[in-house]
């Protein structure tokens, strides 16, 4: 069972996907300098009404094994310790302990 | 020496070039917000970050006729009973504001 922070991150990911198209549409209007300032301002106000779990910036890549948020090796999606543990167990193809 | 070309001619040239190569004519370099429409949607890759996990309790709930047992959950419930017996269990939920210990001063 993933921990609470991972569950929260999953919620953010699903929310970001569900609201992505609407947010893009408002962003397009708000950042479009060829439109009138009133319309752009309204679009910006609408953007501000979106909740916390609808923005892609809320999403954070966490370790999928331990749920840690720091020290993630993004290529594997693992925290540095879980990466070491798995690599030593030989569960990561192509990863060897350096020795010379 | 290059001959003098009036700006209006240069503008017309740019306009023509845009119509030929099908690019948008934007002489004032205004921001059109097109990049928000052009960018790929990131939702699918965001949702697929964590690998799928099997929800054991859900499977058990859906297939009651198989009478499966979640060992870890049983162990946890056993621990809760054991802790309560030793008087170490979680306190009862407050029914109203007065019962709540959150606001009462503790010494």
Task: Give short descriptive properties of this protein.
A: 100 residues, mainly alpha, Helix Hairpins, 2 strands, elongated, B: 107 residues, 5 helices, ribonucleoprotein (chain A)
Could you characterize the architecture of this molecule?
The complex is a heterodimer of chains A (100) and B (107). Chain A folds into two domains: 1-60, Orthogonal Bundle (Helix Hairpins); 61-93, no CATH class. In chain A, 50% of the residues lie in helices and 4% in strands. Chain A has helices at 4-30, 37-49, 80-89; strands at 72-73, 78-79. In chain A, β1 (72-73) and β2 (78-79) form a beta hairpin. In chain A, α1 packs antiparallel against α2 (37-49). Chain A starts with a helix and ends in an 11-residue tail after the last helix. Chain B has a domain at 56-87. Chain B has five helices and no strands. The N and C termini of chain B lie far apart (94 Å). The model of chain B has no long low-confidence stretch (mean pLDDT 87). The chains are: A mainly alpha (100), B mainly alpha (107).
């Amino acid at each position: 069972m993933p921990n609470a922070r991972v569950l929260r991150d999953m919620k953010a990911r699903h929310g970001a996907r569900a609201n992505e198209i609407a947010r893009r549409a408002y962003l397009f209007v708000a950042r479009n300098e060829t439109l009138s300032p009133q319309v752009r301002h309204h679009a910006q106000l609408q953007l501000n009404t979106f909740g916390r779990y609808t923005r892609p910036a809320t999403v954070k890549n966490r370790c999928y094994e331990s749920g840690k948020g720091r020290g993630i090796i993004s290529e594997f999606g693992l925290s540095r310790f879980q990466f070491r543990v798995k690599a030593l167990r030989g569960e990561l193809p192509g990863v060897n302990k350096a020795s010379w | 020496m290059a001959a003098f070309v009036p700006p209006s001619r240069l503008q017309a040239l740019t306009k023509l070039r845009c119509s030929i190569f099908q690019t948008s004519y934007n002489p004032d370099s205004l921001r059109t917000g097109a990049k928000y429409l052009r960018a790929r949607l990131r939702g699918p890759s965001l949702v697929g970050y964590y690998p799928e996990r099997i929800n054991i309790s859900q499977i058990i709930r859906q297939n009651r006729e198989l009478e499966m047992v979640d060992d870890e959950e049983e162990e946890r419930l056993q621990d809760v009973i054991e802790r309560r017996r030793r008087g170490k269990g979680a306190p009862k939920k407050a029914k109203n504001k007065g019962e709540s210990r959150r606001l009462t001063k503790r010494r």
